Amino acid sequence: MRDFLAITKALSDENRTRAIMLLGRGELCLCQIIEMLRLAPSTVSKHMTVLHHAGLVASRKVGRWMYFRLPDEDAPAEVLEALSWVRGSLRNDRQ
């Protein structure tokens, strides 16, 4: 139940779903996500933390830079299903 709630909470915010859609194109640095979402760095950082805790994004740190990507195919089934649903539902949405 806890995983389900974490995933649905993470997906309940428009900016977090926009970040997921951006990451569908490939790995991005936090600074790139900030620029694309046009939000304050601290706001984007908090959004990415929520997504990471829900398992919806993977991250790695290189020096001072933080990179995010969608999880690999070995992620839990519920995570992959949620990401597939979001990406399929919003594929043609240009907002």
UniProtKB/TrEMBL annotation:
Record-annotated HTH arsR-type domain positions: 1-90
Assigned keywords, A-Z: DNA-binding, Transcription, Transcription regulation
Record-linked SUPFAM superfamilies: Winged helix' DNA-binding domain
Presence of the UniProt keyword Cell wall biogenesis/degradation in the record: no
Entry keyword annotation includes Transcription regulation: yes
GO MF annotation terms: DNA binding; DNA-binding transcription factor activity
InterPro entries: ArsR-like_HTH (IPR011991), HTH_ArsR_DNA-bd_dom (IPR001845), HTH_MetalResp_TranReg (IPR051081), WH-like_DNA-bd_sf (IPR036388), WH_DNA-bd_sf (IPR036390)
Family annotation (PANTHER family): ARSENICAL RESISTANCE OPERON REPRESSOR (PTHR33154:SF18), TRANSCRIPTIONAL REGULATOR, ARSR FAMILY (PTHR33154)
Name this protein carries in UniProt: HTH arsR-type domain-containing protein
